[in-house]
Specification:
With 126 residues, the chain is mostly helical. 71% of the residues lie in helices and 3% in strands. It is built from 3 helices and 2 strands, in the order E-E-H-H-H.
Length: 126
């Protein structure tokens, strides 16, 4: 369980190891889902703070704008300051990348299990 003194929290079994039992796989999926949700939450907090402090928008409207950008819909309020516009453009690019990263985090265990199972089937047939 230890590799160079660091606990293996989000590592996967090696191709020569047996497939993870279903119960442990569900726990792994839950951990990855939580990590994905934490990533979204932190990204949302960045957006809320940016809209509030750089554009001077109220907290609820900042939440709305950050949620809409993070969800891919676009901003709600009109932006008036250059710093707010710059932040909104950078946050929109950041949000697109975060979307892809979060999807990767969440589906990684499923893809790994599928590929691991194919490798086990390959070993069995040879």
């Amino acid at each position: 369980m230890m590799r160079n003194g660091i606990k293996k929290r989000f590592t996967f079994e090696h191709k020569n190891e047996p497939l993870l039992p279903r119960g442990l796989f569900v726990k792994r999926m839950f951990k990855h889902l939580l990590l994905g949700m934490l990533t979204i939450l932190l990204s949302l907090i960045i957006g809320i703070l940016g809209y509030h402090y750089l554009e001077g928008i109220g907290w609820i409207d900042s939440l709305l704008n950050a949620s809409m950008i993070l969800g891919g819909m676009g901003p709600v309020n009109e932006l008036h300051t250059d710093s707010g516009k710059f932040f909104a453009s950078m946050y929109a690019l950041f949000s697109g990348i975060i979307f892809l990263v979060t999807v990767g985090i969440i589906i990684a265990p499923v893809v790994h299990r599928f590929l691991h199972r194919l490798h086990i089937d390959e070993r069995d047939s040879s």
